[in-house]
Design a protein that fits this description.
Number of strands: 22
Largest sheet: 6 strands, mixed
Strand order of the largest sheet: 6-7-8-3-9-10
Structural class: alpha+beta
Radius of gyration: 44 Å
Distance between the termini: 34 Å
Number of helices: 21
Shape: rod-shaped
Strand content: 15-25%
C-alpha cells in the first residue's frame, strides 16, 4: 500500500539544521497495524506526517498504491488525503465552536460538498458517544474527545488511519478503550499506523518499528494476521455521491454566522465601518431622492411642453429701454400664435400686486390674470371648487381662485368658498382653491390670486397689454420649431427693425429649465452618495484587518481542515464567505440605521426624504462587494498555509 525509499527531511531552527529523517525506507502493507516508537525527537511524528501527505520530504521516493506522491498537485494531495487517510491527533484538534456531531461530519463538507450528520451520529454511537453528540468539546472528557476524533477519522471511510499518540493525554481506562477501538477497526481491514513512545501501547500492534535520530533501528513483526482488504461495517459501503456546490457554499455561510456568534465583540467592531457606510449611503441617497422629487413636484407646476413668450429690451439711440416699452404683447398676439402648426393652445398672462381683504384681515399678494386654459397648462386645477371659464373672462366677471397661502392668512380655518373678498377695493367672489405647489427660492407659488385676464387688465391693473404668453406644444419634438416660428411671427407683427430684433422678444423653453434642474439634482445625489461611499471603503479595510487576525487565530483550524481533505479553494471560499457574512449583516443593520436617520431628518428638520428600493439594493450590493473584495487577501493567505506548519502553530 505504501512504499517509502530513502526519505530525508530537515528543518531549520534558527541557525541549527535538524535532520528529522535520514534515509528512511519502509513499506506498509494494506490491513497492517504498525506502531512507530521512539523517544522525543526521533523523527516518528515527522515520518507520520510524510505518510499522511501533510509534509513533503526533501528527497527520496514515496509511492502510495503505486503512485509517486511527488508528482501530485496540492489539490490531488488533498483529494488523496480525504479519500484514503483518516487522522487521529494527540491534541484531538476539535473545533471548539462545533458540537461533536458537527466535528465528526466536517470532513464530508470537502468530500461530498455537504455535512453528513446521519453518518456522523452513527459513528458516534459506535464509539459510545451517541448521547453526547450535541455537546461541545469543552463539555467532554479527554477520552470522549478522542472518541470524537476517531469517529471523525472514519467519516470518509478511509483505508488507512494515522494515529499520533492517540492515548498520550488519556487516563488508563480511556487508553484501554481507545486501543480496543483501534484493534476493532484493524480487524475490519483498515490499515493502522500509530505513533507512540509507550512500550505497552506499541505491543498492541502487529508490527513494531523503532526509530532514533531520524533512522529506523529495528522493524519486527509481532503476532497477528494481516487483513488485505477493508471489510467495512454493515451499512457503510463506500459511495461517490456528492452534494451540490450550492449546498457547500451555504454551509460556508452557516459557519460564517457561527463564527460571528462566537466572537460577537470583534464581529461587531468589524461590522461598524460597513454599518456606518451603508447607513450614510442610504441616508444620502434618500435625501437626494427626496430633493429630486421635491424639484419634480415644483417643475410639474410649470406644466409640460411649455414655452414662455416675454417682451425683451430694445435699444433706441444706444439707450436700453425697459422690457416691453416698445414691443408690448397683446391679446391678439396670443390668438395669432395659436395658428402656428404644432401649437396646442396659448394663454396670455398679466401680473401685478394687490391688497386683498376679508372682513378685518388683509394680505398683500400677487394678482395673476389668466384665461381658462391656464389651469390645464400649469396643472392648476382647483382642489376645491372650479376655475373660471372663457365666458366669465369675456364678460370680465368678478370671480377669483385663491392659493393656499392666501387662504391661511385671510380665512384661517374658515371655508373660503363663496365668500366675498376685496382686491384693491373691488369685490370678488371666491370660486375655487388652487392646489399647493410649495415655495421656490424666489417666491411662494401658493401666494397668489388668479382672476380672468380681462378682469385683471381692465378692472384691477389698468393694463391694455399682457406681460407674457404661455405656449403649449402638442408634442415635445415640436418645441424647437414653434420657438423659432413664434419669434419670427412676433418680429413681423410688431414690425421690429432688423437692428433691434435680437433682443426684442424672449422665448424661454421651460423643458430646458426642467432638464437643468433635474440634472443638477442627480449630480448632487451622486456627489452625496460618493462621499458616503468612502465610509464603505474604510469599513472594508476594517474587515480585511479583522479577517487577517482571524486567520492568525485559526491557523491550527486551517491545518486541521486541510488534513481532513480541504483543498486550497475550499479554505478560500470559507473565509470569503465569512467576510461576506460580516459585510452583509453590517449592511442590513446599516439599512435599518439609514432608514431611522432619514425618518429623524424628515421629522426634525422637515427635509423631504425618499428611500427607494434601488438605493437599498445598491447598498446591499456594495456592502457585499466590499466584503468580497477586502476578504480576498486574508482568504488567499489562509488557503496557502502549509497544513503541517498550520497544525504545529501555537
Amino acid at each position: 500500500m505504501i512504499q517509502l525509499t530513502n526519505i530525508r527531511k530537515s528543518y531549520r531552527m534558527g541557525d541549527t539544521t535538524v535532520h528529522a529523517l535520514q534515509g528512511v525506507s519502509v513499506s506498509i502493507e494494506a490491513g497492517d497495524f504498525v506502531a512507530v516508537m521512539g523517544p522525543s525527537g526521533s523523527g516518528k511524528s515527522t515520518l507520520m506526517h510524510v505518510i499522511g501527505l501533510l509534509d513533503v520530504p526533501d528527497s527520496g521516493s514515496y509511492k502510495m498504491e503505486g503512485r509517486e506522491v511527488a508528482d501530485l498537485s496540492e489539490k490531488e494531495l488533498a483529494v488523496l488525503r480525504r479519500e484514503t487517510i483518516g487522522f487521529i491527533f494527540q491534541q484531538f484538534n476539535l473545533l471548539p465552536r462545533m458540537t461533536a456531531v458537527e466535528n465528526v461530519s466536517m470532513p464530508t463538507l470537502y468530500s461530498r460538498h455537504e455535512l453528513d450528520d446521519e453518518r456522523a451520529k452513527m459513528l458516534l454511537d459506535k464509539t459510545g458517544l451517541g448521547t453526547r453528540s450535541h455537546h461541545r468539546p469543552n463539555e467532554l472528557s479527554g477520552g470522549q474527545q478522542q472518541r470524537v476524533a476517531i469517529a471523525r477519522s472514519l467519516i470518509n471511510k478511509p483505508r488507512m488511519i494515522l494515529a499520533d499518540e492517540p492515548t498520550g493525554n488519556l487516563d488508563s481506562k480511556s487508553e484501554a478503550e481507545i486501543m480496543a477501538i483501534l484493534k476493532e477497526l484493524n480487524a475490519m481491514g483498515i490499515t493502522i499506523v500509530m505513533v507512540t513512545h509507550e512500550e505497552e501501547i506499541g505491543q498492541h500492534a502487529k508490527r513494531l518499528i523503532r526509530m532514533r535520530d531520524g533512522q529506523i533501528q529495528s522493524d519486527e513483526r509481532l503476532d497477528g494476521p494481516l487483513h488485505a482488504s477493508a471489510q467495512l461495517p454493515v451499512g457503510e459501503a463506500p459511495t461517490n455521491e456528492r452534494g451540490s456546490r450550492l449546498e457547500e457554499i451555504w454551509e460556508y455561510f452557516k459557519q460564517g454566522f457561527r463564527s460571528l456568534a462566537a466572537n460577537k465583540v470583534r464581529a461587531g467592531l468589524s461590522m461598524l465601518g460597513i454599518l456606518i457606510g451603508v447607513a450614510a449611503v442610504v441616508a444620502m441617497l434618500a435625501l437626494g431622492s427626496g430633493a429630486q422629487k421635491a424639484i419634480q413636484q415644483q417643475l410639474a407646476s410649470l406644466g409640460s411642453n411649455l414655452l414662455s413668450l416675454r417682451p425683451g429690451a430694445v435699444r433706441v439711440g444706444g439707450v436700453a429701454l425697459d422690457a416691453g416699452a416698445v414691443t408690448r404683447l397683446t391679446l391678439d398676439d396670443a390668438t395669432e400664435i395659436q395658428t402656428i402648426p404644432g401649437v396646442k393652445r396659448a394663454s396670455p398672462l398679466v401680473n401685478g400686486r394687490g391688497q386683498v381683504t376679508f372682513e378685518d384681515r388683509n394680505w398683500n399678494t400677487q394678482i395673476q390674470g389668466a384665461t381658462a386654459s391656464y389651469a390645464e397648462m400649469h396643472a392648476a386645477e382647483p382642489v376645491v371648487g372650479r376655475f373660471f371659464t372663457d365666458e366669465e373672462n369675456a364678460r370680465r366677471a368678478l370671480v377669483a381662485v385663491v392659493g393656499m397661502t392666501v387662504v391661511k392668512n385671510l380665512f384661517g380655518d374658515q371655508n373660503p368658498m363663496g365668500e366675498m373678498i376685496k382686491i384693491n377695493k373691488v369685490n370678488f367672489r371666491v370660486i375655487g382653491i388652487l392646489p399647493e405647489k410649495g415655495a421656490t427660492g424666489f417666491r411662494d407659488q401658493d401666494d397668489v390670486v388668479a382672476v380672468p385676464v380681462l378682469t385683471a387688465m381692465h378692472r384691477l391693473l389698468g393694463k391694455d397689454y399682457v406681460d407674457s404668453i404661455d405656449i403649449e406644444a402638442e408634442h415635445p419634438d415640436d418645441i424647437d420649431a414653434i420657438q423659432g416660428e413664434t419669434q419670427a411671427l412676433m418680429l413681423s407683427r410688431h414690425r421690429v427693425p432688423p437692428s433691434q430684433q435680437q433682443d426684442a422678444f424672449q422665448v424661454r423653453n421651460l423643458a430646458d429649465i426642467k432638464e437643468a434642474m433635474e440634472e443638477s439634482s442627480r449630480t448632487m445625489s451622486a456627489l452625496l452618495a460618493s462621499i458616503a461611499a468612502i465610509s464603505l471603503v474604510v469599513g472594508g479595510i476594517g474587515i480585511m484587518n479583522i479577517m487577517l487576525v482571524s486567520v492568525t487565530e485559526r491557523t491550527r483550524e486551517i491545518g486541521l481542515r486541510k488534513a481532513v481533505g480541504a483543498e486550497p479553494n475550499d479554505i478560500l471560499f470559507q473565509f470569503l464567505a465569512e467576510s461576506v457574512v460580516v459585510s452583509v449583516v453590517g449592511g442590513v443593520m446599516g439599512i435599518a440605521l439609514g432608514w431611522l436617520a432619514t425618518a429623524v431628518l424628515s421629522a426634525v428638520a422637515g427635509w423631504t426624504t425618499s428611500i427607494s428600493p434601488e438605493s437599498v439594493f445598491l447598498s446591499v450590493f456594495f456592502s457585499s462587494s466590499i466584503g468580497l473584495l477586502f476578504g480576498i487577501y486574508p482568504a488567499k493567505r489562509a488557503s496557502q498555509l502549509n497544513p503541517i506548519e498550520a497544525l504545529r502553530y501555537e
